[in-house]
What we know:
The protein starts with a strand and ends with a strand. It is built from nine helices and nine strands. Helix 2 links the parallel strand 2 (24-29) and strand 3 (50-55). It is an alpha/beta fold. The chain folds into two domains: 2-173, Rossmann fold (3-Layer(aba) Sandwich), CATH 3.40.50.620; 186-278, Pantoate-beta-alanine ligase, C-terminal domain (Pantoate--beta-alanine Ligase, Chain: A,domain 2). 37% of the residues are buried. Bound molecules: pantoate. Pantoate is lined by residues 28-30, 58, 61, 128, 131-132, 150, 153.
Amino acid sequence: MDILKTKSQMREWSKNKKTESKTICFVPTMGYLHQGHVSLLEKGKPLCDELVISIFVNPTQFGPNEDLDDYPSNIEKDLDLAQKAGVTAVFLPDKKNIYPENFQTEVKLQYLPGFLCGKSRPIHFAGVATIVTKLFNIVMPDIAVFGQKDYQQLQIIRQLVKDLDFNIKILEGNIIREKNGLAMSSRNAYLSKIQRKSALCLSKSLDLARKLIAGGEKNPVTIKKKIETFIEAFPETIIEYVSLCNPENLEDIDRIEDKILVALAVKIGRTRLIDNALINPAQ
Length: 283
Ligand code: PAF
């Protein structure tokens, strides 16, 4: 497994692979890898000759009062997991290499960032779109895999690839959950034992939505209210949003007829967690 610490090393590596007609699959991450990341690597592994992961905590996607300085990190463990998952190259740049002095450009989508997480994290998706564009240009993958847990991010990346004519196939990886239903996230590391119990309110809310929809409930407002009441009963929870929306454009829906996205963001203590599910009333 090669470890490449600069943009030029990474680009050179990819160019060489391309000269050898090798295909590249790419999984961008911010490190502190867990089974969710590993599942993305496992999804990509059989599809290409080379499997590349990037580990970079991107400062431009964090707001001023967010957890950039506390973001968990364990590079040794990450490298071990990456190796075991069959990664052939790790891109491990530092901040200066990615954002040199006088860096000025931002990639900003006009519409999709205005919903869900974008409402409370106004600069987040411009940061994500900018770093992902840069990583795509540096790594030059044929395929890139993103997790469905960050559903809005996934939609934004799909749109970005279309709008900017990247010749990259975007694949999605399922949400990987702990046995109790908690969606895996690097941020789960912040939770105390009691907060971990409260954090189950997210996946359980999705179960509640599934149950209500299966029972014939068509009114999204009714479901939203029931979910909010349900979450409020768990200690240390502050709801940021509960949204029942169109899975393509993320707009709120008036009535549940077709497949919908139920998406949530809830603070458990100081830790902001997200989760979502696509629910089809016909199933
Ligand atoms: O999903 C993440 O970990 C990050 O948002 C990403 C895509 C690696 C960009 O920094």
